[in-house]
Amino acid sequence: xxxxxxxxxxxxxxxxxxxxxxxxxxxxxxxxxxxxxxxxxxxxxxxxxxxxxxxxxxxxxxxxxxxxxxxxxxxxxxxxxxxxxxxxxxxxxxxxxxxxxxxxxxxxxxxxxxxxxxxxxxxxxxxxxxxxxxxxxxxxxxxxxxxxxxxxxxxxxxxxxxxxxxxxxxxxxxxxxxxxxxxxxxxxxxxxxxxxxxxxxxxxxxxxxxxxxxxxxxxxxxxxxxxxxxxxxxxxxxxxxxxxxxxxxxxxxxxxxxxxxxxxxxxxxxxxxxxxxxxxxxxxxxxxxxxxxxxxxxxxxxxxxxxxxxxxxxxxxxxxxxxxxxxxxxxxxxxxxxxxxxxxxxxxxxxxxxxxxxxxxxxxxxxxxxxxxxxxxxxxxxxxxxxxxxxxxxxxxxxxxxxxxxxxxxxxxxxxxxxxxxxxxxxxxxxxxxxxxxxxxxxxxxxxxxxxxxxxxxxxxxxxxxxxxxxxxxxxxxxxxxxxxxxxxxxxxxxxxxxxxxxxxxxxxxxxxxxxxxxxxxxxxxxxxxxxxxxxxxxxxxxxxxxxxxxxxxxxxxxxxxxxxxxxxxxxxxxxxxxxxxxxxxxxxxxxxxxxxxxxxxxxxxxxxxxxxxxxxxxxxxxxxxxxxxxxxxxxxxxxxxxxxxxxxxxxxxxxxxxxxxxxxxxxxxxxxxxxxxxxxxxxxxxxxxxxxxxxxxxxxxxxxxxxxxxxxxxxxxxxxxxxx
Length: 725
Description:
Blueprint: H1 28-43, E1 51-54, E2 68-71, H2 75-97, H3 109-125, H4 129-134, H5 143-159, H6 163-188, H7 197-203, H8 228-246, H9 252-271, H10 275-291, H11 293-298, H12 300-320, H13 325-337, E3 345-347, E4 355-359, E5 362-367, E6 370-374, E7 381-386, E8 389-393, E9 402-404, E10 410-412, E11 420-425, E12 428-433, E13 436-437, E14 441-444, E15 448-451, E16 459-465, E17 468-473, E18 478-484, E19 487-491, E20 500-502, E21 508-511, E22 519-524, E23 527-532, E24 535-542, E25 545-549, E26 555-557, H14 572-583, H15 600-603, H16 609-615, H17 629-637, H18 639-661, H19 668-686, H20 697-718
Antiparallel strand pairs: 1-2, 3-4, 4-5, 5-6, 6-7, 7-8, 9-10, 10-11, 11-12, 12-13, 12-14, 14-15, 16-17, 17-18, 18-19, 20-21, 21-22, 22-23, 23-24, 24-25, 25-26
């Protein structure tokens, strides 16, 4: 059977080629294409393997101070992405040379090729060629990877011609997403396959297994996708795609299978706690329900069943997880409005240097090596430390015996203290009374207790006034620190000298004032390390004033970087307001070609150490992405490339809505087309707070190509002569 084109015309136009007859036997080119596509969307998300990547000398000063990065999630994925792109190109060339297909004629090529050309020019123009073409440390999304994304998308919209191909792709996608979802749910409930002995055997090369030991992460879903945000984007796409396809399958067995995968991906989406992905999913579902309104009414029973199953899934996840989903969802409005939550610590100063106050409804009193706790309706508890050992006493100074459960959580054997629980890890103690989790306690030098996590109000500013370091917090307290004759002198906003508690013979001091109970000051000559609740930053007192010291020992002025917008809202969207405010002033220098793919971290003001300490909680943090897909594109490959992407995405969404909002024929092309549209919209909305990344972007670009192909095929199936919208 031969393929006969409609007409031999130019590449760009309004008609598309179609197959008059379908081949009875799969061609080698089609097999190669399907293989590359399955690798691209179903295999790559699973790749986890350790690769120790050295940091190039020309970017060393922009990085963390380490000479290499332990890359588990990006290096080998990037190789497979490029391989899949090459295989798909070979498949297309084979099909064209053998006259098995002709290229579709569609306006989609214009923004696609324009974006590809700008990627190449941006890479050529970049001052950091290796990064621009191969990608940055632990990300690996350079020009070659970006071009591979576009190549697979382009080949898919031309090579995809039959329902059989679509079914094979859907099966691969659903199986991959379902298994990843099961892995994610297991992580949510505490089983960490990746960090288990078997997981480490699989992902760590034999020669490195004795030197690497992975520590289990918190009980959030990340699957094999690097972090929960990436997992949220992936499961958002997988969920809406599966849900749409569920409504277009009539056989009970197929409905059960798709319904099960739908619930699995939905559960994993919830378990990521990725609020941006939740918002993207909800907005995508609103549009999807509108497009499927007639189908949903016609298939009321399956619609009610899947709604009930999804609601039940949510209730189970909410009741059985370590953190309530309701609380996480409720925080979305607070995060957007930036309503200031009251600090739970209410200090109560005394004249004898004893730290005391209330945290929530729990009264605390810390005097050197003894902490006394008193919660409403609970018996008092005293915690003492001596020579590194903790002991616990009741209000009669009777020692309380301890027990431990299977999860190594400690509890008191006395029934009076049944509402107390704790977890001890070396020199750190976490304590919970009822539903109040107290700040972490740390043992200092074996004989002192100190609050090793955030207790007092968060800092909002650090500045240098000649030879004085000034720290300000949210409740308008001010701490001034200076060196007088080599000794630390601290004072408050009223210039009252604050008492310091020295730790044995070390030049290490706690501030004996309840307003600054979680500050630890460590001095070495004229260098001062400030540890506030476990967050450290170093300063040097010099004749020129107070300077900050970075990880390389370089002196950095204590002043903020240039910013634009988000003043007072730096903490918005999990501190994205800070990153965006420092990124916006940089855009004017990246209009034409940007700075090169994946070079964002080089041009972000990494020397804004005070800003990073205040809002990212570590002055040593490296900001390697803007947490916004659109800012990321502008910075890396330029404003023109961003406009090309917006044109591509906008044209796809508008043409799809025009195609599927009218009375439509129920078939596989329209079903998958609407599913891909929903997935693309969920991803693009999530992109306002997340970035393109090599764990999830291949799935997105694959679904975009699949969606465009389905649009063309569906249009062809309903019109005698197919016209591109």
